[in-house]
């Protein structure tokens, strides 16, 4: 197996004026404080939301000792004898008497265990003759009994603050009679495409025009993050239009994402406008695709000017915007996880930029990941991104990669 030298990225090896991916990610995360506005929601609107305060048990669950089986409730001491059936207990309709020596109560799953009884025998394990039963096997004391409070006791911390609420959490809160939760409010994200060449879907293409695809990928990736979205549409390539869009977004959004117009061309107004209206934190990163990525602030609004190339939009979103939004949401592990893999195909790469190439990864029978390229790695080739299920991450110092080299991958699962 061929391994590339594992050189640590140092600032000296970076092209001037650019940051390493890790430095840029650190700058983004260091500049963000989690949002601290809360809202109270009914449980049915709270799936996926982040709990702002711990949830405590208000009562014991189960609220009453009850049967785990359809059968007969009895005193364990009597389990060897013939027992007289004195009544029936249904879930929701308790038996109100007391089981005395030599007696039992017909009982259904979930019904309150009658006073006097301490065990339940499954109906499959008894012989019934009229109003009399006899157990056909042995029974342990307390068998098939679910005790009051064995799930939770009043005051127990059921969920810590910061928990992303899932289906089990919401069911558990409902079992406590809790009907609302206090969660952090959603992050508000405005997004737009910039470019005079862009045509909205549903309109015929004029000469030199292309369809706007970036808003669709951005919308879909934002959807996985459960944010409030403000779709600002297509912004034309004039300083006035870009400025107006920025001002409008900052009125309501916590984050503004643009795509296109961030490079050095004569119709690239995004970075200039950010400089004029807000503050630029960084603008160039030594990686591919996505070298020009403008990050800064417009007042209290975080700003990400993503490059226009469609694959670059997706890479920069996943590496920079997604962790930023997760941090704003109060989540503590925002960076995407990476895994070791063996690259089964040779890859072309020039040293000087870290590469995020598109790959197809599979595990072999030993659990080892293997990855192969999707082919054309142009940052305009969305089809290559669509065929991929991971990024192949190639360090800045590396050149071409031989088949059999150990690499690192970022699987897309859960990311988009
Ligand atoms: N002289 C230089 N030129 C370029 C450089 C450079 O360093 N020096 N960097 C290149 C790289 S790398 C990238 S990435 C792009 C980024 O440029 P912009 O952010 O200014 O993006 P645009 O020029 O507006 O668009 C690039 C490309 O993407 C297409 N595009 C834009 N928006 C959309 C959209 N919403 N849907 C689909 N496709 C879109 C656009 O038509 C262009 O083909 O700059 C390089 N140039
Ligand atoms: O960095 Mo650009 O995003 O390669 O295409």
UniProtKB/TrEMBL annotation:
InterPro entries: MoaB/Mog-like_dom_sf, MoaB/Mog_dom, MoCF_biosynth_CS, MoeA-like, MoeA_C_domain_IV, MoeA_C_domain_IV_sf, MoeA_linker/N, MoeA_linker/N_sf. One of its GO terms (biological process) is Mo-molybdopterin cofactor biosynthetic process. Residues 190-327 form the MoaB/Mog domain. Pathway: Cofactor biosynthesis; molybdopterin biosynthesis. It comes from the Bacteria. The keyword Endoplasmic reticulum does not apply. GO terms for cellular component: cytosol. It catalyses: adenylyl-molybdopterin + molybdate = Mo-molybdopterin + AMP + H(+). Keywords: Magnesium, Metal-binding, Molybdenum, Molybdenum cofactor biosynthesis, Transferase. Catalyzes the insertion of molybdate into adenylated molybdopterin with the concomitant release of AMP. This is Molybdopterin molybdenumtransferase. The keyword Transferase applies. It holds the Pfam family MoeA_C. SMART domains: MoCF_biosynth. Its cofactor is Mg(2+).
């Amino acid at each position: 197996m061929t391994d590339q030298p594992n050189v640590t990225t140092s600032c000296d090896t970076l092209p001037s004026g650019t940051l390493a991916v890790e430095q840029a990610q650190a700058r983004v995360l260091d500049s963000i404080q989690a949002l601290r506005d809360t809202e109270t929601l009914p449980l049915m609107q709270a799936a996926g939301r982040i709990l702002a305060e711990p949830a405590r048990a208000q009562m014991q669950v189960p609220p009453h000792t009850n049967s785990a089986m359809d059968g007969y409730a009895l005193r364990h001491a009597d389990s060897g004898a013939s027992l007289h059936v004195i009544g029936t207990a249904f879930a929701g309709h308790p038996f109100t008497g007391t089981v005395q020596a030599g007696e039992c109560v017909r009982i259904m799953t979930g019904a309150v265990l009658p006073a006097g009884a301490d065990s339940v025998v499954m109906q499959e394990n008894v012989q019934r003759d009229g109003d009399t039963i006899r157990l056909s096997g042995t029974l342990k004391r307390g068998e098939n009994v679910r005790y009051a409070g064995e799930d939770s006791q009043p005051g127990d911390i059921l969920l810590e603050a910061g928990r992303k609420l899932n289906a089990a959490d919401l069911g558990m809160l409902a079992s406590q009679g809790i009907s609302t939760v206090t969660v952090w409010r959603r992050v508000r994200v405005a997004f737009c495409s910039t470019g005079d060449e862009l045509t909205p879907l549903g309109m015929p293409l004029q000469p030199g025009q292309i369809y706007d695809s970036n808003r669709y990928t951005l919308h879909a990736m934002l959807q996985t993050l459960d944010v409030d979205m403000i779709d600002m549409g297509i912004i034309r390539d004039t300083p006035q239009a870009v400025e107006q869009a920025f001002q409008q977004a900052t009125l309501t959004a916590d984050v503004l994402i643009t795509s296109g117009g961030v490079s050095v061309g004569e119709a690239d107004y995004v970075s200039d406008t950010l400089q004029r209206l807000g503050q630029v934190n960084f603008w160039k990163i030594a990686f591919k695709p996505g070298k020009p990525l403008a990050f800064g602030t417009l007042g209290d609004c975080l700003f990400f000017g993503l490059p226009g190339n469609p694959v670059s939009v997706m890479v920069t979103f996943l590496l920079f915007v997604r962790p930023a939004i997760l941090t704003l949401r109060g989540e503590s592990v925002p960076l995407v996880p990476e895994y070791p893999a063996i690259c089964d195909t040779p890859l072309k790469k020039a040293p000087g930029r870290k590469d995020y190439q598109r790959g197809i990864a599979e595990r072999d029978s030993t659990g080892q990941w293997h990855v192969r390229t999707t082919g054309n790695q142009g940052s305009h080739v969305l089809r290559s991104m669509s065929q991929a299920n991971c990024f192949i991450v190639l360090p800045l110092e590396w050149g071409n990669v031989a088949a059999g080299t150990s690499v690192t991958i970022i699987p897309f699962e859960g990311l988009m």
